[in-house]
Amino acid sequence: MLLHLLRLSLALLLLPLSLGARGPAPSADAKVLRVFIFAGQSNMVGADSDAAQIDRFPPFRGLGEPRPGVRFYHCIGRENKTLSEGWVDLQPVKGMVGPELSFAKCVGDHISDPIAIIKVAAGGTTLAVDWNPENPGGFELYPLALGHVKSALAALDGQGVRYRLEGFMWHQGENDMFSDEGKANYASNLAGFMARWRKDLEAPELPFFVGELCTNTVWGMDHRVNMHAIEKAQRAATDADPRAVYVPTSHVAVKIGGQAGLHYHYGTLGQLEHGVSHARAYLESIGQPLEDPRPLKRWPYRKGEKVKLFVVAGHRNMEGERAFTEDLLQVPGKKRLAKDDGSIAYRYSVGGGYRVSEGWEPLGPAGAHGTFGPELSLAAALKRGRLGPFAVAKFTHGGSQAIDWTPGGSEAPTRNLYPAFLEFVRTSVAELEAKGHTVELAGIFYHLGENDTAWWPFRKAQAARFAELVAGLRKDLDLPELRWVVSQQRPASFEGLDKFDAVAAVETVAASDPHLDQLVLKGLPEEGAKLVLKAAGVVMLGERLAAFFLGKGQ
Question: What's the CATH code, domain 2-12+31-285?
């Protein structure tokens, strides 16, 4: 992705007149309106989201209200379309949360120019047919979308507004994956789609931002091969186009609900994070990184001092998907955890590489979208245990399943985390050694994922796949007695899934391994919504891991 962004940044610096500001000459203090196009299917629409829930998520509070100053022109829906009837203030449509809400807020916080968004999206549609610019069929969305975009721009011209087409955000592909022809031709169809938009808008350098499919769902498990085929096609099209970027979104939240706990739509929080993912990609492309650096002001260990290294790894709750730092401030007695602790060196890769530390940073909240993980309370408790100097390295991916962590991976090799995880651990050790320290890899704390327990084939295989990870990492690190602590929540009860005891399966693995301990977690606060923890629950997760580790002996 970095290569794409460098190429795209150069392309943006060399924009031709066709993408230049249009309209009358500005006054000395006038700013150019940056116009973004949003298009795609249901996860671009905002399906299964609820604008009334937005304020539950601290970083996004207030986005459910109309936002004066951000222009919005939309046509949303398939048979029954909802039209803005001209430019309006940006706001939810029919109570749904689209990615444009958080995108506009995030981008607007980092640039001084005003923003406008044109959105045309309809669920259950295909690139091969509905969005086909050469031979549109089905709901004939390409000509429909083109007409709406041109009408929106004409209205700006009529108002004497100077504007610049700034980017095209595309999120689609789930329906093409069900067609052999749609899958086989998706790369060429997407390339043709981008080319035709640039031609029809007379904007040959228009940047495209192509969002990854929503893999953190039941579809991400039982349609893994199909989704991988679309991913390969999207990556092929964006790799071949210097003005296109593939935008990772597999780390974002998904709707939690239904019989098995997972949906196939992002839902409210996921849509808000979806928009930030596109904003981050756009801002990086113009040289405006979203995150500020968090450097260690002073190296916390004496020269030559032995340092214990603890590795934190796993899935959604180890990442801290719904544990917001603002909520941490309200947890009794835990406010101090929100402050950086410069006495503990910390490096991380969260969301499968979505956010990565710049070397070693002070331990503190550093999760994606204003979140934190159990590493904060874990480290605080270990510190009280007087273990001596130690560092923490965190590698998590909330959108992963156990098979992604195995050395062998799956039929979707781009989702395989094992090589990156192994390299992350090796690099963490090597960097500490390079600073003159003797390093003891003191243990790996791993929290098993809830996703696997929501689908029968993955539930049955979860324990064996975790055992593959443990054995593989020990072998490749040449540490046959490397200590592991695996924590696990008892799955929510579902008819048809309960006949297999996922906790007992892990217990069997741990019983045969003298260097692997299983911690079964019960009674965590706020443990609702199909086992997804909030701030207080994530704090307790870290504390229980530390108490279990210390109680079992260092």
Answer: 3.40.50.1110
pLDDT tens-digit series, residues 464-496: 999 999 999 999 999 999 999 999 998 877 778
**Domain(s) of CATH 3.40.50.1110: residues in the chain:** 2-12+31-285, 307-552
Helices 535-552 & 375-384 angle (0-180, nearest 10): 40
Q: Looking at the predicted structure, is the pLDDT value of residue 543 above 90?
A: yes
CA dist list (Å): 130 to 112, 133, 210, 378:
36, 9, 18, 51
Q: Tell me how far apart the alpha carbons of residues 126 and 144 are, in angstroms, rounded to a whole number.
A: 14
Q: DSSP per residue over 437-456, as a string?
A: --EEEEEEEEE--SSGGGSH
Whether the full predicted model's pTM is greater than 0.85, yes or no, is yes
**Looking at residue 24, what DSSP letter applies?**
S
Question: For the residues of 260-316, what is the DSSP string, one character each?
Answer: TSB-SS-HHHHHHHHHHHHHHHHHHHTT--SSPP---SS--S-TT--EEEEEEEESH
- The band of 528, judged by pLDDT with boundaries at 50, 70 and 90, is low
pLDDT level of residue 215 (50, 70, 90 thresholds): confident
Cα 306 to Cα 446: distance, rounded to the nearest angstrom: 24
- What are the C-alpha distances in Å from 152 to residues 19, 29, 35, 224? 16, 24, 10, 38
CATH (residue range 307-552): 3.40.50.1110
